[in-house]
Specification:
Chain lengths: 198, 198
DNA sequence: GACAGTACCGTCCGAGACAGACGGTCAACC
DNA sequence: GGTTGACCGTCTGTCTCGGACGGTACTGTC
């Protein structure tokens, strides 16, 4: 049907409007900021240009309110909802991508001063603890609200990842990376095993 | 000193040349592919344009071999090494960024067909298991080589993250997310606690 | 050694993504 | 009604992205 390729960011916009109903770019900006923005970041300018593109494609409907501030409200069309549904149902071939400056620095560490590792680890521990606190705060505030329950699920993934990172940097700081390997042996859920035997 | 802003990708190039010695873009491409590329991906075209920029800045030295194929070999200058070291020692303020299509789909799942979750989870489980196998294979091949020991450390972080994701998707597939929360309570290393009490 | 076939290697290009400066708009308070 | 500061939208130049494309070396064939 639509031969156009939509970027993940396009689907974020479609998805947010599907969840929230008709929205202005600024509505989206705020909503994204404390939800999906944590695992799919993009500059807010996209939220002003991309919806127009989607409207051109017939996936969003635009209604302009010219009272006072120029303000555009976008709502989902049937075609937009269909496109979103099709994407949701399509296979996901790509592996997630990480971009971690700290990991980069650690990788190249041997070129520099070995003494910088402890401070790097300390920074990372702090950051991940803070992020965990943010996530836990969300769980406390919204965890009991049945309406936001679906969205709590992704938080759970975020928390797992944060804790994984925190465990790593903590073990590194304490010079006991072997502990991680040992701990992993016990945690494997047993659904299947990795293909390389040992 | 240098008022120029280098991107993380620039430092990847400097770092790779620091680790490997003088290299051509293609050398870098292959080397990146099975190492740093796993946690900092970028298109290979960058490896042809960026070194020239770095050479202009005096951070790399260029030697052209005009026998046969035009081929450029870049090596690190003292200023390049200094820039890399300075970066390695500088504080890391940013949190890592994730880009996970699967997580996005999960977040917007309620808009679509709930039945798509199991297949999404199954795909993810497979992907993460495969990636774990790749990493484990590397550990087996290079784990005993003292020279590559430093680089094994980042692998350990990769493995932690992969296992975290695997645990999550497995729990989701089995409909037992609560298990994750319970398990996390026990694993906390105790360096500190999150700021939100419960 | 001419030729074809194939893997290797480098370059280019249009479409987006990006950061962040900038300017307009509003509410509140004096 | 003027001033202030928070709120909201737009714009710009630059960089990134991915992938198509084209050139180059190697290998085997006769």
């Amino acid at each position: 049907m639509s031969a156009v390729r939509l970027s993940p960011t396009s689907y974020v916009i479609l998805g947010m409007i599907a969840l929230r109903g008709p929205s202005t770019p600024y509505d989206l900006k705020r909503a994204v900021g404390h939800s999906v923005g944590y695992f799919w970041n993009f500059p807010h300018a996209q939220l002003y240009s991309e919806p127009d593109r989607l409207a051109d494609l017939g996936l969003l409907a635009l209604s302009v309110e010219d009272s006072g501030r120029r303000r555009k409200t976008y709502s989902l069309t049937d075609r937009g909802r269909a496109a979103l549904r099709a994407w949701l149902a399509s296979p996901t071939d790509e592996h997630f991508q990480m971009r971690d400056i700290a990991e980069l620095k650690l990788f190249f560490n041997e070129v520099g001063d070995p003494d910088s590792v402890p401070s790097l680890a300390a920074e990372q521990i702090k950051q991940h603890e803070e992020r965990i606190a943010v996530y836990e705060g969300m769980v406390e505030r919204f965890g009991d609200d049945p309406a936001s329950r679906p969205r709590m699920i992704t938080l759970e993934l975020g928390l797992e990842m944060e804790h994984a990172a925190l465990r790593f940097w903590t073990a590194l700081a304490e010079g006991d990376l072997d502990r991680l390997r040992r701990a992993r042996k016990g945690t494997t859920t047993g659904t299947s095993s990795s293909t390389t035997a040992e």
